[in-house]
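Our consortium's second objective concerns turning raw sequence data into structural hypotheses that experimental partners can test. To show how far this objective has progressed, the report includes one record in full. It was chosen at random from the queue rather than selected for favorable results. The single chain below, 313 residues long, was entered without modification.
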Amino acid sequence: MRFHHIRWLHIWAVVTTGLLLIAVAFPQQWTGTLTSARMRFASAGRAFAQSPEAPARLEWLGWQFFRLTSPGGKIILFNPSLNDPKAAFVNRESPLNLEQIDRVDLILISSGHADDQGMAAEISQKTGAPIITTFELANWLVAKGVASDKILRGEPGSRFDVGGIKVQVVNSVHGSGAPTLPGSLPSAVYGGPALGFIVTLETGLKIYHAGSTALTQDLKLYAQLYKPHVALLPIASGLMPDEAALAAEFLLTDNPNLHSVFPQHHASFLPPELRGDVFVKEVAARRALAGRVKAFNPQPGQMFLITTRETKG
């Protein structure tokens, strides 16, 4: 051991002496090399510190249907009602039909109502995407032909992690009856409790789809606990535009993150007082939201780029 220790001391002494001789013989080159190395290191550090957050893409596709594409390329569908003649509810303002859906990573459906679940069963069968919904509605979906292992059964309070996409299931004050299946008794099927979803993407961006909820103090709890950055709020079922604006205010409770709100569960063929532009005005009229939360009135198919700081569209 003593011999090896002495040998390494000799090597260290030779290397150190060599570097010293180089520095004395070529002072300018040596100084330039060190300066260049320091500059490259500092530049890399600044680039890392200032690198922008990759945005998620959010598209409103009519009624309650949103398609969310994460920065990592994961595609999440909320309440995917399509403009398809085979659908129980035809989302006639959506630019998409079933043939145009080719890749999906996760489907979230808030209730068994035909306009809420949309064509989730058919999309799952076509793409293999898993569905998060209630235990009760899962049985109905299996009867519709969805593979049982493609359904993640939950309830308000459940949490899931699907390929790095985190989903917090919350309550929605709404019904959840599913349509009658062929060959069954002519009555609606109980679909379990209605749901909302708070989705957290790879960057930490949190988006809350409220389903068809009515106004509830629960929204303050969701703000305190989960702190969403973006909320998708119904304005023609459960909530009206003025109530949806108050819901946005509730979502600010101990929540510095909220910066954007979008209307859903509405269409251009509804009465004028139940449209997106009215919601935007109601949000603008609430002083607690002024300068903090921006409301958008998207057109079907319009895409927005969203980060934890802002929405662009």
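The partners drew two points from this record. The mean pLDDT is 87. The chain has two domains: 2-50, 56-312. Both points have been shared with the crystallography group to help prioritize constructs.
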